[in-house]
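Notes taken during the Thursday session

The instructor put the following on the board and asked us to keep it in front of us for the whole hour. The protein is DinB family protein. We were told not to look anything up and to reason only from what is written here. First, the residues (186 in total):
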Amino acid sequence: MQSHFALLASYNRWMNERLYAAAATLPAAELARDRGAFFGSILGTLNHLVVADTIWLQRFAALPARHAELDPVRALPTPERLDALPFPELDALAAHRHWLDAIIERWIATLDHDDLRQVLRYTNTRGNGFTRELVPLLLHFFNHQAHHRGQATTLLSQAGVDIGVTDLLALIPDANAGTTPAPHPH
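Then, after some discussion, the predicted structure tokens were revealed:
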């Protein structure tokens, strides 16, 4: 299981690098322009991902194992709103995203079989309490990222920017050759 989550963490970093490089080709006004998406703009969508990832990582940091890799996230203020815009400028947002992605990869690399069997008790942003197993929560964490990155790539496409291949398949090694395949559309 851990190797699958390591692949998803690697994919998360890879896609964010591509997404932010594409976003950097647009002027600030275009990034902030309300395009009718759930979080308004490209910048709003990218900020939402940082906000949501921070919330989830802080929840994961409360697991009994208390992984040291999540210490930097424990020190962050907890976002109060899912539509918060903590980084109104792309450069600062991109730097924070890069930092967060490195934390995610380091933390995921430390998880073992016992860690993955843990149960997390947490309260959502509306104050409702939940008790859920870690594995499905990690699946949600990575799926949520892919979902909103898909929205961001659509918004970029509407702005005339094509980020190219976005499929996880591009990172899955060839079982026969042991090498990562060349990216292809599907």
